[in-house]
Amino acid sequence: MISLPSIPQDVSVAKHERADAAARQLVGQAFLVPLLKEVRESTAGHGVFSPGAAERRFGPILDHQMADTLMTRLDLDLVTQVRQSMLNREAQVAEVKS
Fold first, then answer.
1. Which residue, among 58, 70, 1, 59, has the nearest Cα to 29 in the 3D structure?
2. Does the pLDDT value for residue 69 go beyond 80?
3. Is-contact 23 79, C-beta < 8 A?
4. What does the alpha-carbon distance between residue 79 and residue 49 come to, in Å, rounded to a whole number?
5. Angle at CA 24, nearest 5°, toward 69 and 84?
6. Residue 84's CB: how many other CB atoms inside 10 A?
7. Is the pLDDT higher at 93 or at 25?
């Protein structure tokens, strides 16, 4: 079971959820998609077992879908760091505006 991270007192739940979703999407697209693409392409068969036109066309879509699914289930420290960086940055911008 995934434990929910503690939310800092000065951050609203909505901001924390938006930052968490954005951080998960960023890490998934920047880290997992290229990794999944490399694995898919390096394990592709040769000759008769080579990927067909449909597999070549829809493989990247599958990579994105798999990355999104993994990011909802994985609790990576990188996501936590990116989320905290986003929240800190938003707090700095709000502080400058006021």
1. 70
2. yes
3. yes
4. 37
5. 155
6. 15
7. 25
Place of tokens 């954005």: 22
Domain count, the chain: 1
Q: Is residue 69 part of a domain?
A: yes
CA dist list (Å): 96 to 71, 90, 92: 33, 10, 6
Per the structure, the complete domain to which residue 87 belongs is given by 20-41+52-97
Q: State the greatest distance between any 2 C-alpha atoms of the chain, in Å, as a whole number.
A: 65
Query: Taking the model in full, what pTM does it have?
Result: 0.73
Q: What is the DSSP string of 8-70?
A: PTTS-HHHHHHHHHHHHHHHIIIIIHHHHHHHHHHT---GGGS--HHHHHHHHHHHHHHHHHH
pLDDT at 1: 41
